[in-house]
């Protein structure tokens, strides 16, 4: 198990094997958790508030359904004009 040293301002350097294994890069966030006296670091991805809807269960279910429809060829278009699009939407 790699050993790290706490440096000035309580900073630590994660060993390169750990960074590579967990795909951690400069600027990434880690969550620290106390589990019965053991510190556990977990990589986390921060989502902008404006994009949070995309990660909801409902949105992801709809995305999966859309992917199935696309794979099954259930689509229309592309259209050359907005009029062609409007006609397709009316039918």
From TrEMBL:
Protein name (Swiss-Prot/TrEMBL): Looped-hinge helix DNA binding domain-containing protein, AbrB family
Q: Name one Pfam family in it.
A: MazE_antitoxin
Out of the domains of life, which is the source? Bacteria
**GO-annotated molecular function:** DNA binding
Q: Which residues form the SpoVT-AbrB domain?
A: 4-49
The record's listing under Gene3D superfamilies reads:
2.10.260.10
Matching InterPro entries: SpoVT-AbrB_dom, SpoVT-AbrB_sf
């Amino acid at each position: 198990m790699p050993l790290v040293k706490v440096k000035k301002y309580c900073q630590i350097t994660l060993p390169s094997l750990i960074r590579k294994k967990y795909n951690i890069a400069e600027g990434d966030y880690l969550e620290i958790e106390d589990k019965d006296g053991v510190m556990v670091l977990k990589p986390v991805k921060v989502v902008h508030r404006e994009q949070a809807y995309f990660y909801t269960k409902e949105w992801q279910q709809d995305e999966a359904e859309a992917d199935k429809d696309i794979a099954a060829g259930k689509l229309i278009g592309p259209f050359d004009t907005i009029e062609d699009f409007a006609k397709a939407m009316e039918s």
